[in-house]
Amino acid sequence: MNKITLWFKVKKLQKLCDINHKEFKKAEKHAKEKNISNNDMQALIHEYSFEYQIINDDIMDLNTRYLSYKAQKLLLPLPDFQDETNREKSSITGIRNFTNKGISQLRSDIRKEVNERRNGIFLWIVACTGIIGAVTGLVAVIKSNL
After folding, report:
1. Is 96 contained in some domain?
2. What is the number of alpha carbons within 13 Å of residue 14 lying toward its C-beta?
3. Are 101 and 63 in contact (CB under 8 A)?
4. Does a structural domain hold residue 129?
């Protein structure tokens, strides 16, 4: 999965979350007008919060899969599945996704690795540019002496 695909999928899920919130507000307003019992109101809140949790779990799962893919592509180690500070088990799906701390740590590791690789490439580019400049200067000197 690439960054653009992730972005579109997350945006779609965030739109669903917004729709869920708007539907909850309508249902809550309607329930207050009907003057429903406290238990019924709690059931309504539970129903919509459950939908929100499912959507949020899907977003976290997408982010986890995307970051795992990027880390594996760069040959970086992934946080331990059993480490509670970096991964948490979803109460809805049971999947172990990264926590915010785990996401932050893995993104930092990915950035460091990409920068280190990029610096190596820039070093070669600078060296090649210097060599090309020296050769060009040498050719110019040799041609002017002929």
Report:
1. yes
2. 7
3. no
4. no
Instruction: Give the burial string for 95-120 (b: 16+ CB within 10 Å, else e).
Output: ebbbbeebbebbeebbeebeeeeeee
State which residues form the domain around 39: 3-117
CA pair distance 114, 18, nearest whole angstrom: 35
Integer-rounded Cα radius of gyration of the chain: 27
Contact present, 141 and 105 (Cβ < 8 Å): no
Q: Whole-angstrom Cα distance, residue 50 to residue 63?
A: 20
The chain-wide mean pLDDT, for the chain, equals: 92
Dihedral sign, CA of 69, 70, 75, 76? negative
CA proximity to 28, closest of 45, 16, 52: 45
The structure's pTM equals 0.78
If you average pLDDT over residues 77-85, what whole number do you get? 86
Task: Specify the number of domains making up the chain.
Answer: 1
Residue 124: inside a domain: no
CA end-to-end distance (rounded Å), the chain = 59
The two tokens of residue 142 are 């040799």
Domain-embedded: residue 57: yes
